[in-house]
Design a protein that fits this description.
The chain is built from five helices and eight strands. It has 187 residues and is α+β, with helices and mostly antiparallel strands. The chain has one domain: 2-Layer Sandwich (50s Ribosomal Protein L5, Chain: A). It has a six-stranded antiparallel sheet with strand order 2-3-1-7-6-5, covered by helices on one side. Strands 4-8 form a two-stranded parallel ribbon. Strand 5 and strand 6 (115-120) form a beta hairpin. The longest helix has 22 residues, at 2-23. The protein starts with a helix and ends with a strand.
Length: 187
């Protein structure tokens, strides 16, 4: 009899903890940023930068290589790619367009802790995009980064803190977010 009462009390404690976690606003996940990037050298790099500028209307950051790879002709300081980071309201509208390019399906292997990535083979697959003669056919990569509130603790310079493992966004939580809020199917 006493054993059953202790089991009931422990079950009630577990249920209270779960309900507190569900109601806690600091546990809610949100999309922190969407990063678009293209690779290329010389002329292809210029075309990639034009494509990202057409898609987002933002300034593009060019990425330089840091290593020397003689077989590919890569040397330190050579511009090998371009990228743009989206934050705010436009990130969700553009993300929905990019997900439409892959028919709202993402592979389970593409989802990692705190982020997921997918590629678009040709920009023509994006809805409402027309062929640009001066660009040609180029693809791009899309990375979506998730975060919980309170992540600023590791970003600040003074009194920098650590982010515990429980604040990381698990792949299961990302899958739930994608299926419930964005209507994406995960294979």
């Amino acid at each position: 009899m006493a054993k059953k009462q202790t089991e009931k009390k422990s079950e009630q404690k577990v249920e209270k903890k779960k309900s507190k976690l569900e109601k806690n606003p600091m546990r809610e996940i949100e999309i922190e940023k969407v990063v678009l990037n293209c690779g290329g050298v010389a002329e292809k790099l210029d075309k990639s930068a034009k494509l990202l500028n057409i898609l987002t209307g933002r300034t593009i950051r060019q990425v330089e290589s840091t290593k020397r790879i003689p077989t590919f002709g890569v040397r330190p300081g050579l511009k090998t790619g371009c990228m743009v980071t989206l934050r705010g309201e436009e990130k969700i509208t553009l993300l929905k367009r990019f997900l439409g390019a892959v028919s709202n399906k993402i592979r389970k292997k593409a989802i990692k802790e705190n982020h997921f990535s997918f590629g678009i083979k040709e920009y023509l697959e994006i809805p409402d995009m027309e062929y640009q003669r001066d660009i040609g056919l180029i693809g791009l990569d899309v990375t979506v980064v998730f975060a919980r509130k309170g992540r600023r603790v590791i970003m600040k310079k003074i009194k920098q803190g650590r982010l515990p493992k429980k604040q990381h966004v698990t792949p299961k939580e990302i899958i739930d977010y994608l299926t419930n809020k964005l209507g994406v199917t995960v294979e």
